[in-house]
Write a structure and sequence with these properties.
Distance between the termini: 46 Å
Oligomer: single chain
Number of helices: 16
Shape: globular
């Protein structure tokens, strides 16, 4: 009997964990927006039936999603960082548990409100509306918090699963977190429409082996008469509307064109070196990569050639003489420029270090042979690019070169070239749309990301990163160029469509004309402030609706 009871209680947790795995699969390998909605709707369905276990259901869901979705971190820590496999697995599990706390918070908020409303004379329709508003807002706010706390890790925010779905139409208005809010609303609506709200019963306690009403609880709220006049069908109808309206509105918004061409198209060349990470910092292999990249630059005459992050593993002044001379002669002859990802000496190190610090940078070299413009990475990756306070012991378990960079200045102007203005960002930085929006407000007409996620091997990190870049293009109505070491090197237009891309894990060059744009989307202008205000407003409305409903029925 006890074993059967334990299995019965464990089943919802297991199902929630499985739904989290399905949500991870909606990003990759399936890249299916509807699958994300189905997974989250399953979680909502479970929470509505067991509000007292909401936090654990949310935690199990998040744990399944993040263990599967960011499992590529194990590759970086073990294969390339040299950490023992067991310790790398433990670190991944602990990190996934931390990330799972955020959906647990959102579900706990839903469960607490539902438990409260079950004990009050509230109509089903008011209860459904209040819960939908709270869950949508709580999910969005916890995603925002996850993207900010401890420098932020917004990877796998659910909005990224919708770059090809109807809800992407909201991205120019509210950004990816606005899409998160609306996706949570649709998922809640689906769960409500298909499963309804559980029958409202008084809270129960167990006495003498039997369940009896707890003292002081409200009477049974029978939807067929008495306190709650709204029918179950009304709550289901609300669920249909909550699911359908955002999708329909998103389709309508997708028809709007936020882009406005700026100047003539710029011809660019994006290089993908496919340098294995375990060889990248070997001196001989690093030199070979410089020669290979230089030969690619010399092979074509285009206004701008972009190389990946740390294509050079040494600062430009330390470039071997023959490589330097060959590159400069070509640039002088053609009047072109090259953008190289490389470490550079920090122009200003706020840490006040006595020894010179390096920045993770993009340097622009023109016919003068010197760096005429640079971008220094501002948003650094914990453990990969700086060591968080108190975690030196953890970093010592790995062997990662260039692991402690200085931060770039917070406000860096775009690169002016051939009538366009290019805003660079480096690797992980393109997860932070509000920071890139600052560059757009500074006049950027084209976005360019240089990356090296060879750290994560042949994994689903690469297509996930492409989804993120596509969302940035949609939010900001700017084309996005991606020059990467192992992939995915691509050109994305201002509507988030991939115009061309190179096969991952191959060496090659992608040459394309890119049309800059200069229209300003609401998201580019205001960043995340509107969606945070909207979410807070939804929370306030969720608290007010049941009160208003009780007054009308009093």
């Amino acid at each position: 009997m006890n074993a059967t009871l334990r299995a019965h209680r464990a089943a919802p947790i297991a199902l929630s964990f499985g739904a989290g795995l399905v949500q991870a699969a909606s990003f990759r390998p399936f890249e299916a927006w509807w699958l994300q909605l189905a997974a989250l709707a399953t979680l909502v369905w479970l929470v509505l039936r067991s509000p007292e276990r909401a936090r654990w259901l949310g935690f199990a869901f998040g744990f399944g999603c993040f263990v599967a979705g960011v499992s590529w971190l194990h590759v970086s820590m073990h294969r390339y960082g040299g950490m023992p496999a067991v310790l790398a697995a433990l670190a991944l599990l602990l990190f996934a548990a931390y990330l799972a706390a955020f959906p647990a918070i959102a579900c706990e908020a839903l469960g607490r409100l539902d438990a409260t409303l079950r004990r009050r004379p509230t109509t089903r329709l008011a209860r459904a509306a209040a819960l939908a508003l709270l869950f949508s807002a709580a999910w969005a706010l916890t995603e925002v918090l996850r993207g900010w706390l401890f420098t932020g890790f917004p990877w796998l925010a659910i909005g990224y699963a919708h770059v090809d779905g109807p809800l992407a139409g909201f991205a120019p208005l509210l950004g990816v977190y606005g899409v998160c809010l609306l996706a949570a609303c649709v998922a809640f609506g689906i769960a409500l429409a298909l499963g309804g709200l559980p029958t409202l019963q008084p809270a129960e306690v167990v006495q003498g082996g039997e369940a009896v009403p707890a003292a002081g609880t409200a009477p049974v709220l029978d939807p067929t008469g008495g306190i709650a006049p709204a029918s179950a069908s009304a709550a289901r109808a609300f669920g249909v509307l909550a699911a359908a309206l955002p999708l329909v509105a998103g389709l309508a918004l997708s028809a709007l064109d936020w882009t406005s061409p700026h100047g003539a198209p710029l011809r660019v060349r994006l290089l993908q070196g496919n340098v294995p990470q375990d060889l990248k910092f070997d001196p001989g292999r690093s030199l070979a990569a410089m020669y290979a990249y230089t030969n690619e630059v010399l092979s074509r005459d285009v206004p701008l050639t972009i190389l990946p992050e740390t294509a050079w593993t040494v600062p430009w002044p330390h470039t071997p003489h023959d490589v330097h001379e060959a590159m400069v002669v070509h640039l002088q002859k053609t009047g072109t420029a090259v953008a190289i990802g490389m470490p550079l000496l920090a122009e200003h190190d706020p840490r006040g270090s006595a020894t010179p610090s390096l920045t993770n940078s993009v340097g622009i070299i023109d016919r003068t042979g010197s760096i005429v413009w640079r971008y220094d990475k501002r948003h650094l990756v914990p453990f990969g690019e700086f060591v968080p306070f108190g975690f030196g012991w953890f970093v010592d378990l790995m062997h990662i070169p260039l692991g402690d960079f200085a931060r770039g200045a917070p406000d860096q102007p775009p690169l002016p070239i051939a009538g366009q203005r290019i805003a660079f960002d480096i690797c992980y930085e393109d997860l932070f749309g509000e920071e890139i929006a600052v560059q757009v407000r500074r006049g950027a007409t084209i976005l360019a990301n240089v990356s090296n996620i060879a750290w994560f091997g042949d994994s689903h990190a690469l297509p996930q990163h492409l989804q993120i870049a596509r969302m940035r293009a949609i939010e900001l109505a700017r084309p996005m160029l991606r020059a990467t070491n192992t992939g995915i090197t691509a050109a994305i237009d201002a509507r988030g469509r991939v115009l061309a891309q190179l096969e991952p894990y191959t060496r090659g060059a992608l040459e394309i004309d890119v049309q800059g744009t200069d229209a300003m989307t609401p998201y580019a202008r205001f960043g995340n402030a509107p969606v945070v205000a909207l979410a807070v407003g939804c929370v306030a409305l969720a608290g007010a609706l049941p009160v208003a409903a009780r007054r009308r029925t009093a």
